[in-house]
Specification:
The protein is mainly beta and about 240 residues long. Helix content is about 15%, strand content about 40%. It has one domain.
Length: about 240
């Protein structure tokens, strides 16, 4: 096991003529309760798990950049919780040259936070602990990597990823990236993203990454959102 600060290629040359598409599924790992305070959420969790296969997620990428987005074409009144619990409403843009991850905030009407007001920008390459452990996932040979983040309440949250060095792209689902290979599976808390297939050399356009909005990190935004919530609860 080795602990490193990952640095991908410092310079990436050339312009991709076509892009690749990685298809991901979401798996909900909710621990449902039949009694106690958490029991009231069980029907919602069960509903999300029932329709999780209808949530279609794609990562369009090349050597220089990528975008992760959710296809809401099949979203309806029955499966909407499976979509909303994913937290994938906003496209996530990754740039291997600038080493950034960008996405807009979702906003909150009750808290008076406008949607898309803030452009959240984080580092693509973070501290990961690489492990020697190997696992086959859907036919992909992957290796384990872990990191820990701290939430706004000071809780330590473990993130476990499995990446495939045979695909040397530092991207993954949602805002996970920065590993020496495409992320095939990643789990944080009760959500797991799993790669199902990759389509290479497709004539698919990657949208231009956003530049407008008040810039802050995702952590700064979550802190602001949490403080706003605390102030509202005191009223």
């Amino acid at each position: 096991m080795k602990y490193i600060i990952l640095v991908f290629l410092t310079a990436i040359v050339g312009t991709a003529q076509t892009n690749h598409i990685a298809h991901y599924n979401i798996k909900y790992l909710f621990k449902t309760e039949n009694s106690g305070a958490g029991a009231r959420f069980t029907p919602f969790f069960d509903e999300a798990k029932k329709y999780e296969d209808e949530v279609k997620l794609v990562l369009i990428f090349n050597k220089e950049q990528a975008v992760f987005q959710m296809n809401e074409e099949h979203k309806n009144s029955e499966n909407k919780r499976a979509f909303s619990f994913c937290g994938c409403d906003k496209p996530v843009f990754m740039n291997a040259i600038n080493k950034t991850i960008k996405f807009y905030n979702e906003g909150s009407l009750p808290m008076g936070i406008p949607e898309d007001k803030y452009l959240l920008v984080n580092d693509l390459f973070l501290d990961w602990e690489l492990h020697d452990e190997e696992k086959d996932i859907n036919g992909f040979t992957t290796y384990k990597a872990t990191r820990t983040r701290t939430d706004v309440q000071g809780n330590k949250i473990l993130i476990t990823a499995w990446y495939a060095p045979e695909f040397p792209y530092p991207y993954g689902p949602l805002n996970y990236g920065g590993l020496p290979g495409l992320i095939v599976q990643v789990q944080e808390g009760n959500k797991m993203f799993v790669l199902s297939k990759i389509e290479f050399d497709k004539n698919t356009v990657i949208p231009t990454e956003p530049t407008q909005g008040e810039v802050m990190t995702a952590e700064e935004y979550k802190k602001m959102e949490y403080e706003t919530y605390l102030n509202m609860s005191k009223r």
